[in-house]
Amino acid sequence: MRILEGIEENFRFMVLEVSKQVASTLNVVERPDQECIKRIESRDDYIDNLKSVIENACWGRIHGSTDRNKRTLDLVRAANIININLERIADYAVNIVSQMQYLTEPAFIKRYDYRAPFVDVDKALGLVFQALTRQDVKLALRICRAEFALDDHFKKAFDAILGDLRQGESPENAISCFNIFRYLERMGDALLNIGEAVIFAALGEKLKIHQYQALQDTLELGEETPITPGDFHSIWGTRSGCRIGRVQEGHGARSKGVLFKEGNADKLAKEKENIERWQRLSPGLAPSIQAFQTDGDSASMLLEYLGGCNVQEVVLTADREIVENACFLVTQTVGGLWEQTLVRRPVAADAMAQLRARLDDVFGLHPHLAFGPMDIGGQAVAGLDALLGAAQAAEKTLAAPFAVLLHGDFNLNNIVYDHTAQRIHYIDLHRSREGDYAQDTAVFLASNFRLPFFDRKSRGQLELAMRRFLEFARGFAAEQGDETFEARLTFAVARALATSARFEMKASFARELFQRGVYLLERAAGHAGRPWEALAFPDAVLTY
Fold first, then answer.
1. Is residue 402 pLDDT above 70, yes or no?
2. With contact defined as beta carbons under 8 Å apart, do 303 and 285 qualify?
3. Distance between alpha carbon 120 and the CA centroid of its chain, in Å?
4. What is the DSSP letter of 43?
5. pTM of the model
6. Radius of gyration for the chain, computed over Cα atoms and rounded to the nearest angstrom
7. What is the pLDDT of residue 304?
8. What are the sequence ranges of the domains in the chain?
9. What's the CATH fold of domain 309-542?
């Protein structure tokens, strides 16, 4: 292919050389021979050099070419990934022949089925060149599935070796055999990487085999109908553990988009349950579920792809008039939902427990933010542990007078604004629950403040969005006779700002977030013993 010009010939040689190494290794396992072992070990240097030649050609093509077409670059990147993994397979072959030299009884390995894994590796390697040059997803899936077969072979061999060890059958030979099967199993891992690289070359999207199969199964395509380029587009920017992407169904006038999510089964099942709950409460608020399926510990779901854009995009890019309109729709929607789901029962605040649970992540990224007791000008200053203890004790004396149904992760990018339809949608709902509305309020405010945009227009619109929501939340509290809202909000925003530091790489802004959270903690803890109704949330803490 012209796309792989300058790479293709050496790549073909690489596949052939690695295949020969694997075949020669099988011969050594069956008939140990020192000369053959030496040839395998010396041939490894040639493969290493070939790998470097292909790697340099790939990088030269990526960085030195004027052709910046994404498909070209994806194919070259995939070729390099495959090249690296082919060299790993060759290394594992050398490791296997090295282990053969430790066998005091070379025939000992014939107790176990060693041929089958070698055959599976050889068959998969025979597909690699065609799979890449044709970007053939069906062949890629066959390569990936070799890893599953090799895992099965390893498990059977491991069980048999363990049985022999328990019976005292030559532990030295048994351990060497175990190592040989372990290297064969690692060849399977490399083949899986190769197959997934071909899928990347074909689709232009990095998908693990289980993600590809989940997408294929959820779309009910069947194995004989591969996903084609352009059908799937990843949606990045989420910190969720789920893989999220947009899938295009159909073409032309019948074309429509759906959202594909794949991830932890428990998490997605909870999200499904919450989406259905929100749909019953307010039809159209959450995306409708098109399909859902589980497969062991993972699950996949197809959701309606909602029109519009998230509120974060609106606040950062739209004119002030549209930002005002979006803020109005958000507050009107939220107010109606809070009123609709309000239940008069006390709800304990838990912001400090949430803060403690996330501090390790904060300090893992920014260890300089942790502080102990200090003496400043003869004045003793409590350390963070003491401050958290005092704040947690104070918070236990606070409770919201009622519960509402919370979004649970009320960030700007989890709210969709449809300007044409003049409505708001909720997405990413796996944390929805009944609780204190000060929690959703605090998350909304912090998700504005922590955005690292510091030009006058962007910061002004972020502050506008915070101001409008805070005005609304205060009005709701007054209507409901909630006199301790400001105190609970102080604890909740302290938690939200301090823990937001774990998302910010820039040390100076992370310190700003954390210290503002600490300031609010000191303010809240210092108010303990006095009426909570008298503690006001300081709006200035949200002005940068």
1. yes
2. no
3. 31
4. H
5. 0.70
6. 30
7. 84
8. 7-206, 230-304, 309-542
9. Aminoglycoside 3'-phosphotransferase; Chain: A, domain 2 (3.90.1200)
